[in-house]
Amino acid sequence: SQTIHQWPATLVQPVGSPLSLECTVEGTSNPNLYWYRQAAGRGLQLLFYSVGIGQISSEVPQNLSASRPQDRQFILSSKKLLLSDSGFYLCAWSDGTASGNTIYFGEGSWLTVV
Amino acid sequence: AQSVAQPEDQVNVAEGNPLTVKCTYSVSGNPYLFWYVQYPNRGLQFLLKYITGDNLVKGSYGFEAEFNKSQTSFHLKKPSALVSDSALYFCAVRDAGSNYQLIWGAGTKLIIKP
């Protein structure tokens, strides 16, 4: 069965510091990968998605970037964090070969920028 | 424009009573519809989806949803609510022409009172 791992679960970072959130998927190959942000415990905002190694699409221009160095690894980064980057970040995956496929989420990472 | 609406910010139901969480959508083409649940400080969990076929879809934890094309709705239902059903529920829709993105509702907080 497929599993998704996301870490760290929580982190507190000062303004201006770098960020790296990592996500890996097991049990599948060539998945679509996603980074979402959830602010104020409600709305989901798609930040990035990737359909293959090195292929990243950005949905919202911002202080963040994403990379996919391996087929099942997705990394969310920032060179200098802003206060507004605080939030709950969710990595997700879906089957890249099937239409109408379901998106499955990791457990999320709480980021507090202070 | 494509959109998903969850008209109720919060739904309160007594334990043992039936529950309904509403969702309406507007997309071009045939919609692929999804329901997810999110417990506090956790990632989203997939409940059920409608792709095609029977308008009544059964999912996890005793939930079901009814697809109504004429009313462009996909309401989530459960015959008898449990306190443990208290959570945040998200409706989402994917345009049949897209393999990557979901359009998300704002979420409905479901509170089940003992």
What does this structure look like?
The complex is a heterodimer of chains A (114) and B (114). Helix content of chain A is 0%, strand content 57%. In chain A, the strands form two sheets. In chain A, strands 2, 4, 5, 6, 9, 10 and 11 form a seven-stranded mixed sheet that branches. In chain A, strands 1-3-8-7 form a four-stranded antiparallel sheet, with no helix packed on it. In chain A, β9 and β10 form a beta hairpin. Chain A contains no helices and eleven strands. The mean pLDDT of chain A is 92. With 114 residues, chain B is mostly beta strands. In chain B, the strands form three sheets. In chain B, strands 2, 5, 6, 10, 11 and 12 form a six-stranded mixed sheet that branches. In chain B, strands 3-9-8-7 form a four-stranded antiparallel sheet, with no helix packed on it. In chain B, β8 and β9 form a beta hairpin. The N and C termini of chain B lie far apart (41 Å). At the A-B interface, β5, β9 and β10 of A face β5, β6 and β10 of B.
How would the blueprint of this fold be written?
The complex is a heterodimer of chains A (114) and B (114).
Chain A: E1 3-7, E2 10-13, E3 19-26, E4 32-38, E5 44-52, E6 55-58, E7 65-70, E8 73-78, E9 87-94, E10 103-105, E11 109-113
Parallel strand pairs in A: 2-11
Antiparallel strand pairs in A: 1-3, 3-8, 4-5, 4-9, 5-6, 7-8, 9-10, 9-11
Chain B: E1 3-5, E2 10-14, E3 19-21, E4 24-26, E5 31-38, E6 44-50, E7 56-58, E8 64-68, E9 73-78, E10 87-95, E11 103-104, E12 108-113
Parallel strand pairs in B: 2-12
Antiparallel strand pairs in B: 1-4, 3-9, 5-6, 5-10, 7-8, 8-9, 10-11, 10-12
